[in-house]
Every structure is written in structure tokens, then in C-alpha cells.
Amino acid sequence: MNPLLENQPRCDWCIKTENMREYHDHEWGVPVHDDRKHFEFLVLDSFQAGLSWQTILNRREGFRRAFADFDAEAVSRFGIAQVEQLMLDPGIIRNRLKIEGTIRNAKAFLEIQKQYGSFDAFIWQFTKHQTLDQRPRTMKEVPATSPESDAMSKALKKAGFTFVGSTICYAYMQAAGMVNDHLEYCWRRSG
């Protein structure tokens, strides 16, 4: 950890472990415009369904290795042999529906890229291509969904995605910097 950041005030959810602080300090809420990073966050957030973010973050490198460094093109070509291999991989969450859903999502991701030129152009339309600044004072003020995440979920499902309910979409929006939910006292609010 950077010694200059060690005693900075942070959002409550990230203070328990160093990897959560690192993620909070350097990634969470930073606007993403790289399609590979978008796919990474979609994969990780879809696997988070029903689990803690800490569980997913602890396995991030395993997911990176298992899903071809989050290359949607490569993942879209995975077949039953890769699914069976991933079901034996202790470095990820071994949930067949989520693994198969990731392959399905990779195919849908590529279709959106063809249609819109990039996934980035498609996904940012839900916030009118800007970061929504919520300015919460406490974690209780941070919503689990929003009208924007509802619309995103509906559009992604229509495009063939799975594991993209409104709550997952909202978590994705937070991760990808489409919404700024850093608490008012958090140093990252202005950083």
C-alpha cells in the first residue's frame, strides 16, 4: 500500500483487507472505456451474484487465467471441454451456470461490439455518457439498483446476456465509473 494513502478516509466497505483497499483506491469508480476491462468487470460481477466481492477479488487472477485474460473473442469459442476443465479449476467459482453464462455473454458482447462499434459506446448510453454523481453520506444511502441499471439490465438481457439483473448491473456501473458512489468523506471522491 502507498504510505501516503495509508491513513486516508475511505468508503466503509473496503477497509478490512489490503486487496479491497487497493481495488477501492485504484479501480472502483474510475471511468472505464476499454472493452476488455468492460468484459472483465461483467465477468467478475456476474460471478459475484450471491457472493461477496471479497470472494471474487481473491480469485481475480484465477478468473483472468481461466477466461483468456478476459478476451471476449477467445471466451466466445469455449466449448464443452473448456467448461468441464473450468469446473475443476479451484482458482475460480466453479458454477456451471455462471461459466456457461460467461461464454454466452462473450458471444453477446461481440455482437454488441459489431452493432455499436464498441461495447463502450453501447454501455455508456445508459448514463448519457457521463458519470452519475450520487454523493452518498453513508453506505445506507448507496442504492442497490437505479433506473439506469434497470434499463441496462433489460437491454443486456434482450441482447442475450445472462446474470445481468439490475443489482449486478448497478455493481458493474459502480466498478466501471458510470456512477460515483464514493462516500462524501472518502478521499477518492475528489481523487
Give your account of this protein's structure.
The model has no long low-confidence stretch (mean pLDDT 94). This protein has a single domain (12-189), classed as Orthogonal Bundle (Endonuclease III, domain 1), CATH 1.10.340. A two-stranded parallel ribbon has the order 1-2. It is built from ten helices and two strands; from the N terminus they run ααααααααβααβ. The chain is mainly α. Helix content is 50%, strand content 2%. It starts with 17 loop residues before the first helix and ends in an 11-residue tail after the last strand.
Brief account:
The chain is an all-alpha fold and 191 residues long. 50% of the residues lie in helices and 2% in strands.
The CATH class = Mainly Alpha
Strand content: under 5%
Average pLDDT works out at 94
What's the number of structural domains?
1
Features:
191 residues; mainly alpha; Endonuclease III, domain 1; two-stranded parallel ribbon; 10 helices; 50% helix
Secondary structure blueprint with pairings:
Layout: H1 18-26, H2 35-48, H3 53-58, H4 60-66, H5 72-76, H6 80-86, H7 96-116, H8 119-123, E1 132-133, H9 147-158, H10 166-175, E2 179-180
Parallel strand pairs: 1-2
Helix pairs in contact: 2-7, 2-10, 9-10
